[in-house]
Design goal:
The chain is of the alpha+beta class and 203 residues long. The protein is built from 7 helices and 8 strands; from the N terminus they run βαααββααβαβαβββ. The longest helix has 22 residues. The two termini are 26 Å apart.
């Protein structure tokens, strides 16, 4: 059975934010950025909203028709990093994001700078910033369907793709889709690992 997918627009913003917030509440990296369940429930959605706004403006959000899964993609020209990772304006994107979300939380800015540092430049590519699946729908192939549609286009156009896996489970999914570890994992200070992964287009 196929999965119906559409491109989200600004009218879907709140749905996407809620979906990402729910999907990543127990993610190892989210738990590191927002330690403590109560603190995370109160603030995590603000970071997901910032990510959603950036991608609605400069990229594309693919959403399943039933609203239970979404993927945030940014097209990256050669030599550029993702917004929010460092926007090319004095590298103050991470600081601005921290200031707008939770000024006392240094980890919001730190993770943006760390992921910026490992993000490959020099070749245009599609950047899978995040993919979220409702917890009660995980394991049904929705993530594979969302990613596969873009990877098929990447293969046709000769474009590589890049992402940072935030859990061992997601890393396994990406490996099955042809992504391989780029260099070495990113060790977050006193926190979990992230895995920068790259996929060359397939003929």
């Amino acid at each position: 059975m196929g999965v119906a997918i559409r491109t989200a627009d600004v009218s879907d913003r709140d749905l996407v934010v809620r979906l990402l917030d729910t999907a990543f509440q127990n993610d190892p990296v989210s738990r590191w950025v927002f330690p403590g369940d109560e603190y995370r429930r109160a603030n995590h959605h603000k970071l997901m909203a910032a990510f959603t706004d950036i991608v609605l403006a400069d990229g594309r959000i693919d959403l399943t028709e039933d609203g239970t899964a979404c993927a945030l993609w940014l097209p990256m020209p050669a030599g550029e990093h993702a917004e929010g990772e460092g926007d090319g304006e004095g590298d103050d994107g991470p600081a601005q994001m921290r200031a707008s979300i939770d000024p006392a939380n240094e980890r919001i800015e730190l993770i943006a700078r760390l992921t910026e540092d490992i993000h490959p430049a020099g070749r245009a590519h599609e950047y899978l910033w995040m993919i979220g699946v409702s917890p009660d729908r995980q394991g049904e192939g929705l993530g594979t369907a969302l990613i596969g549609a873009v990877l098929d286009r990447c293969d046709r156009e000769g474009l590589p793709a890049y992402l940072e896996a935030s859990s061992a489970r997601s890393r396994g999914l990406y490996e099955r889709l042809g992504f391989t570890l780029l260099d070495r994992p990113l060790d977050l200070p006193d926190g979990p690992q992230m895995w920068p992964m790259w996929r060359e287009p397939r003929p």
